[in-house]
Design goal:
Blueprint (H helix, E strand, L loop, with lengths): L5 E5 L10 H15 L3 E7 L9 H10 L4 E5 L3 H14 L3 H8 L8 H7 L4 E7 L15 E4 L4 H7 L8 H15 L3 E4 L2 H10 L5 E3 L19 E6 L4 H14 L8 E4 L14 E5 L4 H6 L1 E6 L8 H8 L4 E3 L1 H4 L10 E3 L2 H8 L2 H15 L4 H8 L23
Parallel strand pairs: 1-2, 1-4, 2-3, 4-5, 5-6, 6-7, 8-9, 8-11, 9-10, 11-12, 12-13
Protein name: Glycosyltransferase involved in cell wall biosynthesis
């Protein structure tokens, strides 16, 4: 049997059904470890409160990642109590908090304990800073934390500018403590990565942008446009609030546009079809949907990098975006990511030559997010045993469920 170094990838719940942006990121992280030659065991909690592992989720995982071991333990009240205790102590930092994070209690996580006994265990990649506190003990001899996004920055964004709440400052202190325990930190967002570099040891922070394997849109490039604008999103409060507020503003613009909204966000009761707006619900083939649209919109503010925005760009569609959606992007997006306002939309959509140019700019810019490029830029010091990326399963775009 081939002997390779083992990496544990931890995501608290099921991500294989890809119903959220964080699931896309989880699949990307797993793909990267495989492309770098690691033998990977995915560790998770079977009965996670938000994303439990159903029979369908397990089957989908095994179909998408054949040969990758899925290791599940049950979350219980003892683990929940331990996690809460670690979280409280982490506010204070120092050696007591470090000791608390490393606390291990026997018999609670038999499958995790089995992984810890593997002599080839060399690396653990943990999703979210708080993910460390959800583990029963230290995950491995070397730990990487993928931040996804920072909860503290979300809380700060909910308060008036320059007036962060006490809760947001305490959350930031705790998140920085968690990240301080990691050997390396991955940031999906360019701006958040720079922020963390200013607060932590710069050499431990690495900007790892979303690396989606672009779907094949070549056959659909000449499709007649059905929609002027498209938005794809899952049903969470950020998407629901953002698209609802945009449609309220759009109602006063007096524009004869056709706007398609896809994804489980269509279940939000504030969204109503009409005035050129169509609620498509789940759409299995997002590539074809983007091919039928002239451009995309991303009204969502907040932290991290909006994967829906990168998907649209990789499909060759310029994006009209809210200011907060721009902060996580790599530099160079100015020709294909435009302000989400009436004047910008009218100007671009009313000029076929400018629209064509923006589409080409979108495709060029999206190359910075290609899987091969991101893997190459992240591979230094991370190769488990170098292998070609050929044969690694492709991560689909975020499901529009």
């Amino acid at each position: 049997m081939e002997k390779r170094n083992l990496a544990i990838f931890f995501f608290a719940g099921c991500f294989s059904t890809v119903t959220d942006g964080c699931h896309v990121r989880a699949c990307q992280d797993l793909e990267m470890l495989l492309a770098l030659g690691w033998r990977v065991a995915v560790y998770s909690y079977r009965n996670h409160h938000q994303w439990p592992w159903s029979a369908k989720g397990i089957e989908t995982f095994r179909d998408r990642f054949p040969g990758v071991e899925l290791v599940l333990d049950d979350w219980n009240w003892k683990l929940a109590f331990l996690q809460k205790l670690k979280g409280v102590i982490a506010y204070f930092g120092g050696w007591p908090a470090t000791r608390a994070l490393r606390t291990w209690l026997p018999l609670l996580t038999p499958e995790f304990d089995r992984l810890q006994r593997d002599p080839d265990l060399k690396l653990a990649l943990v999703s979210y800073p708080w993910g460390i506190s959800h583990l029963n003990g230290s995950p491995g001899p070397r730990m990487i934390v993928d931040t996804h996004d920072l909860a503290a920055l979300e809380l700060i964004g909910d308060t008036p500018a320059g007036q962060p709440s006490t809760r947001s400052m305490l959350t930031l202190k705790r998140e920085l403590f968690y990240l301080g325990q990691a050997d390396e930190i991955w940031s999906i967002s360019y701006s958040e990565g720079q922020f963390l570099k200013s607060l932590l040891e710069r050499e431990r922070v690495r900007i790892v942008p979303p690396a989606l394997r672009s779907w094949d849109v070549a056959a659909a490039t000449d499709t007649t446009s059905v929609y002027d604008l498209v938005f794809v999103g899952s049903n969470n409060r950020w998407n629901g609030d953002a698209i609802s507020n945009f449609l309220n503003a759009y109602g006063g613009w007096n524009l004869p546009l056709k706007i398609a909204i896809a994804g489980s966000v269509c279940r939000d009761t504030r969204l109503v079809a009409g005035n050129g707006v169509e609620l498509l619900g789940f759409v299995d083939d997002l590539a074809s949907l983007y091919a039928k649209a002239r451009a995309a919109i991303c009204p969502v503010e907040g932290t991290g990098t909006k994967i829906k925005l990168i998907e649209a760009l990789s499909a060759g569609r310029p994006v009209f975006a809210a200011p907060g959606a721009l902060t996580g992007l790599l530099p160079g997006h100015e020709d294909c990511v435009l302000p989400l306002d009436r004047q910008s939309i009218v100007t671009l959509l009313g000029n076929p030559a400018a629209l064509s140019s923006a589409r080409e700019a979108a495709r060029r810019y999206a190359r910075a997010y290609s899987f091969e490029r991101v893997v190459a830029e992240t591979s230094e010091g991370l190769a488990g045993e170098r292998v070609a990326a050929i044969g690694i399963p492709s991560v689909r775009a975020i499901s529009s469920r």
